[in-house]
Amino acid sequence: MNKCWNCGVEFIDPTNVCPLCKCITERDDAEEEEFKPTYPFRPDKEIKKIQLAMSIYTLAAIIAEAILVIIDFHVGDRIGWSIMTGACMVYAYITLKFSIQKHNGYQFKILMQTLLGVAVVVLIDFLTGFSGWSVNYVLPAAFVLIDATVIVLMIVNSRNWQSYIPMQLLLIVLCIIPYILHHFGISSDSIMCLIALCVAIFVFAGSVIIGGRRAMDELYRRFHV
Fold first, then answer.
1. Domain total in the chain
2. CB-based contacts of 63-67 (< 8 A; 24+ apart in sequence)
3. CA 116, CA 103: separation in Å to the nearest integer?
4. For residue range 187-212, what is the model confidence (pLDDT) as tens digits?
5. Which range of residues forms the domain containing residue 16?
C-alpha cells in the first residue's frame, strides 16, 4: 500500500503520484494499528457537525455584520471599523472552511491563511490612515515566517522533504511583491524586503545543494528542468 507523506493519505491502488498534492508516494509496509482514511474521502459525522457549525456561524456573522454596519453608519461619519470586523469574520470563516477541507494539502492551507491574514492587516492599516506599517514590516515578515515554517516541516517530514521545493520557489516570487510596492512608493522600507528575499533564496539554494539528486528529481518532475 502506497502512502503520501505530505497529505498522510494511503492508496489501495499502486499509484506513484498523490492526486491531491502531486507529491511522490512511497511504499508503507508498516502494519496499521488503526483505520486511516483512503482516497477518495468520505464525510463522517464529525465533518457534518463542523459543516453545520460553519453554516450557523455564517448566518450569525452576516446578521452581526449587518448590525455593526448600521451602528457604524449612525454613530460615525463614515463606515470604517465595521469593515475591519467584517474582514475578521471572513478570515475566521475561511479558516473554519480550511479545517474541514481534506482535499487541500497543508502547504496550501498555510500559505493561503498567512496571505489572507496579511490582507486583513493591510486593510486595517488602510482604514486607519495607512501609515505603511503593514507593507513595510508585516508583509515581508510573513514571508520570512512561511520560510521558517517550511524549514520546520521539512525536518518533521524528512521522508518527503523535497515536496516543499515548489513552495520555496513560489516564496521567492512572492518576495518580489514588496520590491514592487517600494518601487511605486507604497512602501518606504526596503531593508525588510531584502531580508525576506535573501531568506527565501537561501532556503531554496540550501535545499537544492544539500538535497542533491532528490531535489533535482523533484524540480524535473514538477517543471521538467
1. 2
2. 64/89, 65/89
3. 19
4. 888 888 899 999 999 999 999 999 88
5. 1-41
